[in-house]
Every structure is written in structure tokens, then in C-alpha cells.
Design a protein that fits this description.
This protein is mainly α. 82% of the residues lie in helices and 0% in strands. Helix 1 packs antiparallel against helix 2, helix 1 packs across helix 3 and helix 3 runs antiparallel to helix 4.
Length: 106
């Protein structure tokens, strides 16, 4: 169950980072509240996953899911660059996440 918590925490991390973009420096109430809720849920689920998963592995995977997911949201919905080098770098992060999952102790 810890891996499920960690994965969902990573999804909520994407939510709060994207929410930051749309809150315009916390000047828009709806996106600011969305950001805050996603942040609390993300950290709460990360904390639950840390009951059994190794700290370094869990944190790196959580951050990686957030980084990759946020980059994909930026490319797909916000019109950010999809240059081949950028996609390759995102794939390197994905490879790192997979490697950490495969070598995790729990």
C-alpha cells in the first residue's frame, strides 16, 4: 500500500505545482485553495508511505513523479517546449524513478 500512497502523493504534487502557476502568486483564491489542498494531501500521503519505504527512495520517486508530471502538463496544456533534448531529459528522470523502484528494500 505504501507504493500506492507514494504514487498518489506524486500526483498531488503535480496538482499543487500546477496550482501555483494558476494562483498567480496566491492572488487568485480558487487556485490558491486548490494548491494548498493538494500540498497537504501530497505531504500526508508521502508521510504515510515513509512508514515502510526507504526515505531516500521515497523522496526521490515523489519528486521525480512531480517533476516529470509537471513537465508533461507544461508541454501538453501550457504550450511549453517539447524539444527532443527536453523529452530525453524527462525520460532520464523516468529511468531513475524505475531504477529506484526496482532496487528499493521494501
Amino acid at each position: 500500500m505504501a507504493w500506492v500512497y507514494l504514487f498518489v502523493a506524486g500526483l498531488f504534487e503535480i496538482g499543487w505545482v500546477v496550482g501555483l502557476k494558476f494562483s498567480l502568486g496566491f492572488t487568485r483564491l480558487g487556485p490558491a485553495l486548490f494548491t494548498a489542498v493538494c500540498f497537504v494531501v501530497s505531504l500526508g500521503l508521502l508521510a504515510l508511505s515513509l512508514k515502510t519505504l526507504p526515505l531516500g527512495t521515497a523522496y526521490a520517486i515523489w519528486g521525480g513523479i512531480g517533476a516529470v508530471g509537471t513537465a508533461i502538463v507544461g508541454i501538453v496544456w501550457l504550450g511549453e517546449s517539447a524539444q527532443a533534448v527536453r523529452i530525453a531529459c524527462i525520460m532520464l528522470i523516468v529511468a531513475g524513478i524505475a531504477g529506484l523502484k526496482l532496487t528499493a528494500d521494501s
